[in-house]
Amino acid sequence: MEKNIDGLLKSEEEKEQGNIFFKNGDYE
């Protein structure tokens, strides 16, 4: 269960970082 939560948190962080890159125009 904890591993699932950890994975979800990680993917959420990556999603946020992706959005930041997208807004900065660095996303390809």
TrEMBL record:
Residues 1-17 have a biased composition (Basic and acidic residues). Residues 1-28 are annotated as: Disordered. It comes from the Eukaryota. This is Uncharacterized protein. It comes from Plasmodium reichenowi.
